[in-house]
Amino acid sequence: MSRPGQLLFVVLAYNEEHNVGRLLESLRQLDLPGYRPRLLLVNDGSTDRTREVVMNHREYFPVEVVDHAANLGVGQGFRTGFAAALERLHDDDVVVTIEADNTSDLSILPAMLRQVEGGSDVSLASCYAPGGEVKGTTFLRVVLSKVANWIIKAFCGVSEVHTYSSFYRAYRVSALRKAMARYGDRFIEEPGFVCMVEVVVKLHRMKLRLTEVPMMLDGGQRKGASKMKVVRTIRGYAHFAWRNLFAD
């Protein structure tokens, strides 16, 4: 990048009071030369102390909260987050999306940023790429995730990456603007976790450059249960793949 850029973490949170404080503490400790990191939290209808916990960290880390009055789901959460990011950032800035539950391995973020700086439009953290690893989760969830990845690769033709559903990504802002210019309100149409797959497929169809950094996904870092319903999400992957087999 030609100048020190802004780095905006976009985080979706639904009842993450036991996780989001630790996340902000981890973000504060990152050493990212050349960037001015800050956080935009999409509070997706939380009924616990999520918002209060985040606001208590404003003194130590630049934070903005956008509230949904009710829980609208992952798809609407990212629509809100990306729209807010594009209003605030320049084309050579970076948006990093991460999970609120501390399962994202922040140690690989410098490598992801180097990929974006080197020409990638999106760098994806990938637990299924060579060198990646999954621990602290159930065997069933791993198997179903791999089956879902196979479905997307087989039906949607995205072969250059290994993980499609992770929130943890670094986007060049110019790439998000191009996607919005092409798809508009259709950029994210899926309501649930499948929207992350949808984003990868649509960026791939635009011939944007997607790269990966292997990471260890540690489900043991999460306090409380995952919000993803595995079987429902796998069914959503299959439906998405079939509907989009010949889509533009």
Question: What does this molecule look like?
Answer:
The protein is α/β, with parallel strands linked by helices and 248 residues long. It has helices at 20-28, 50-55, 74-88, 109-117, 139-156, 173-183, 195-205, 230-243; strands at 6-13, 36-44, 63-68, 94-98, 122-126, 133-135, 169-172, 210-214, 216-218. Strands 3-2-1-4-7-5-8 form a 7-stranded mixed beta sheet, sandwiched between helices. Strands 6-9 form a two-stranded parallel ribbon. Helix 5 (139-156) runs parallel beside helix 8 (230-243). It starts with 5 loop residues before the first strand and ends in a 5-residue tail after the last helix.
Salient structural properties:
248 residues, alpha/beta, 7-stranded mixed β-sheet, two-stranded parallel ribbon, 8 helices
